[in-house]
Write a structure and sequence with these properties.
The complex is a heterodimer of chains A (420) and B (191). Chain A has 420 residues and is mainly beta. Chain A is built from 3 helices and 30 strands. The longest helix of chain A has 17 residues. The chains are: A mainly beta (420), B alpha+beta (191). At the A-B interface, strand 22 of A face helix 4 and strand 5 of B.
């Protein structure tokens, strides 16, 4: 079900899930508005719920009725149509450019209201408010906080005459894409600050890799690491105070930790192998990284205070680019078998490794902040495309972009909750 | 002996040689003519073992020549110095005998010409993760650098950088494209 819109990205659900909960989202009533709004709130919610793989939203054209209030709902008709949850709503304009979105989540079988909110919202935040509603519905039914109202960052390259490298952020449905930085030289390895306000990334603008930090709202940026050799793979610590990074200034690629405020640097690994792609454990007490010290790239873990690295992965000859789930229970990675590069997830408690994608050049896995989805990059022809797959590998959707090659997606943190 | 190379089996006419005379133009350099590059690679890899000292060939000197400037020597298209790319096996920075011979020739040339410096740009194919490939490209540039230093080039004359998989010379997801992208490019600068 491709859905085109204002953004450059297009979402396509590529794999539906058996056993997904049947829901129906009735188009929100906008008849009270003085002029049309550019956002279809009901459609955004429908698409969010479908993308999660947890829900299967009824096709809009198949809806059995068009209620906008719970009082108008004839539950038996929805029950007969196989619907378990129904979402109805309406939008009012309180003042020019100021709206109220009211919605109700109804349990069709129990015939009662599970949620009912009125969200005040400015015009330019209408899309975001729709994602907030999706988050509330998701949380009410599954018990897990929704991650629809978050952002992703990724690198895009366009090759017309000269190749251009663009760092962008967008909503999780691909809309509202905004350029953070554009360069003639490669941009790489974006990493979100835990407050979602800044990105660290690698830029070759001075003909060599250097690490910059950029505040998104102000676009203020500063070079944080420009040592001789590689300055790469920045990763923000969960407390926001430190950056793990890779330097070759003392020899081969090793992992370092830099205090962002003082720029003080501490070397964490010391090995003639390649040590790279550091990421922090959920609570920040250890760092997981890629090393080929055994002869092929594998994942290792080292305490942030230092010590002997412990090997984590043993299955296959290529395991790299770890992403740790927010609860720390899973590690997603690039896993190669028979020359095919796929995304796998490793359950720490059981030691089970499960391949969750089925293409051959998949890379850059990144967990959603609720740990339910993994965003990653794949290829189609000569272009990179983004996919998100559920942690069990059952639900998958694609974010494609016709105007270039997109890669290295990273899922940003939760936004602060609205006060209620 | 090593400074003499037969060119009889190397058809280099298609090779596009771009001399980089200042840092600011480096960005226009890295991607050489793909076709010529691939031809060159095929020629080099099908040559039977030794490139050097073939008896029935035409001989060109790769060392500093009293009558030619360094710039002129670098502009010649029929010497081993015209070979500006060496290739690698998958996930390896090990130099083949041919790559070693090419790099030794460049090392000799740089060692004999103090006004010349060069940049070694390491690259990787697209497979695997991107930062790992940055480190792999760096390792390739470093192993190439070691050869140049061993031939007597000075540390100040050689700069290295890795682009990982970010600047492919060839597009596509084939063995051929991957082989063409696992490379170190030698980019000269004459002061």
């Amino acid at each position: 079900m491709p859905v085109a819109g204002f953004g450059a990205l297009i979402i396509e659900i590529t794999e539906g899930v058996e056993g997904a909960l049947p829901v129906a989202v009735v188009p929100f009533d906008t008849s009270e508005l003085s002029s049309e709004i550019p956002v279809d709130v009901g459609e955004i919610i429908t698409n969010d719920l479908n993308r999660s793989g947890v829900f299967k939203a009824m096709d809009r054209n198949a809806l059995v009725a068009g209620p906008n209030y719970s009082a108008q709902v004839l539950y038996s008709r929805w029950r007969d149509a196989g619907i378990e949850f129904l979402i109805v709503g309406r939008i009012f304009e309180k003042a020019p450019g100021e709206f109220d979105i009211q919605f109700q989540l109804l349990d069709v079988l129990k015939q009662n209201q599970l949620l009912g909110y009125s969200l005040p919202v400015k015009k330019r935040k209408l899309r975001s408010a729709a994602h907030e509603i999706s988050d509330l519905i998701y949380e009410q039914i599954t018990g897990t906080r929704g991650a629809f109202n978050t952002r992703i960052a990724y690198i895009k390259s366009q090759s017309k005459k000269a190749r251009k490298y663009i760092l962008q952020v967008a909503d999780t449905d691909g809309f509202n894409a905004q350029t953070v930085l554009e360069s003639d030289e490669p941009l790489m390895s974006p990493s979100w600050s835990p407050d979602g306000q800044s990105l660290a990334y690698v830029s070759f603008e001075n003909k060599r890799p250097e690490i910059f930090i950029q505040h998104l709202a102000s676009a203020k940026r500063s070079k944080i690491s420009g040592f001789k050799g590689i300055n790469g793979a920045p990763s923000w610590s969960p407390d926001g105070k430190n950056l793990a990074l890779v330097l070759t200034k003392d020899g081969s690629a090793d992992i370092y930790v830099m205090n962002i405020a003082s720029k003080r640097l501490r070397r964490l690994t010391r090995h003639r192998s390649i040590d790279t792609e550091p990421v922090w454990s959920a609570r920040g007490e250890s760092i997981i990284f890629t090393s080929d010290r055994s002869g092929s790239p594998q994942l290792y873990e080292i305490a942030v205070k230092g010590g002997k690295p412990k090997r984590i992965t043993f299955e296959g000859k290529y395991n790299s680019a770890a992403s740790v789930s927010p609860d720390g229970k899973y590690i997603a990675m690039v896993h190669a078998e028979r020359g095919q590069y796929k995304i796998a997830q490793y359950e720490r408690e059981t030691g089970n490794l499960t391949v969750i994608t089925d293409s051959s050049l998949d890379e850059s896995p990144s967990f959603s902040p609720n740990g339910k989805m993994v965003l990653y990059a794949s290829t189609e022809g000569n272009n990179g495309v983004l996919y998100a797959v559920s942690i069990d590998g059952r639900a998958k959707h694609r974010l494609s972009d016709q105007s270039g090659d997109i890669r290295e997606p990273v899922w940003g943190p939760y936004k602060r909750r609205r006060k209620r | 002996m090593k400074q003499y190379f037969s060119i009889s089996r190397l058809s280099l006419t298609g090779l596009v040689v771009i001399l980089v005379s200042s840092c600011a133009t480096v960005q226009e350099m890295p991607i050489q003519d793909d076709v010529a590059d691939q031809q060159l690679q095929d020629e080099v890899t099908t040559a039977d073992g030794t490139i050097a000292g073939d008896s029935d060939g035409v001989y060109a000197t790769a060392m500093s020549d009293e009558t030619l400037t360094a710039q002129q020597l670098l502009e010649q298209t029929d010497t081993v110095l015209a070979i500006r790319t060496v290739f690698f096996e998958f996930n390896s920075a090990k130099l083949t005998d041919k790559s070693l011979a090419i790099l030794e020739a460049h090392g000799n040339f740089v060692a004999g010409n103090g006004n010349v410096s060069l940049r070694l740009e390491g690259h990787a194919d697209e497979r695997g993760s991107r930062e790992y490939n940055i480190a792999l490209g760096d390792r390739r540039a470093q192993s190439s650098r070691q050869v140049l230093l061993f031939q007597g080039a000075s540390i100040d004359q050689i700069d290295t950088v890795s682009y990982g998989e970010e600047q492919p010379a060839m597009l596509g997801h084939t063995e051929e494209a991957w082989a063409g992208n696992r490379r170190v490019e030698i980019i000269y600068r004459v002061n």
